[in-house]
Design brief:
The chain has 150 residues and is of the alpha/beta class. It is built from four helices and six strands; from the N terminus they run E-H-E-E-H-E-H-E-H-E. The radius of gyration is 14 Å and the shape is globular.
Length: 150
């Protein structure tokens, strides 16, 4: 019997989380672990869930707490793939997951019609695959447009 691929799916609360939940069918057949900034455990269909602090670039101390929490989660879970729809928790998870050998996927927010999010611009430089919901934002080096995936 082959081992299931373990996916760590990370998103901030609100629209990022809603978009991540819309991707659940893509994870069928995988072991999935969710991470968010609010207690979303009841929305995961029984999958494991970790809560992390909500932070942004203006909250340096909270960002450090988020970083430490994400290190702990990644060391415990050891995912094969890290997927995020944004924002800061997802970017940090991608960076750390990459260091641990996980494949990384960033799906930029559908709300970013005119330009990539700040996290999306940063993730494009480090993610194995970076996707945008909008064809006019796609670039040869990424993000790529593969249809409206969310």
């Amino acid at each position: 019997m082959t081992r299931q691929i373990k996916v760590l799916a990370v998103a901030s609360a609100g629209g990022h989380w809603t978009q991540l939940m819309r991707l659940r069918p893509a994870f069928r057949g995988c072991e999935i672990v969710f991470v968010s900034t609010l207690d979303q455990g009841n929305a995961t269909g029984g999958a494991r869930f970790h809560r992390v602090p909500d932070a942004n670039r203006f909250e340096k101390l909270t960002l450090v707490k988020l970083f430490v929490a994400m290190v702990r989660i990644l060391l415990v879970e050891r995912p094969d793939v890290v997927v995020s729809t944004g924002a800061a928790p997802g970017y940090i998870a991608l960076r750390l997951g990459s260091l641990l050998g996980a494949r990384t996927v960033w799906i930029d927010s559908i709300a970013n019609v005119d330009e990539l999010s700040m996290s999306g611009r940063m993730a494009t430089k480090v993610a194995d695959l970076c996707l945008t919901q909008w064809p006019h934002l796609a670039r040869p080096e990424g993000p790529h447009f593969a249809g409206s995936v969310v």
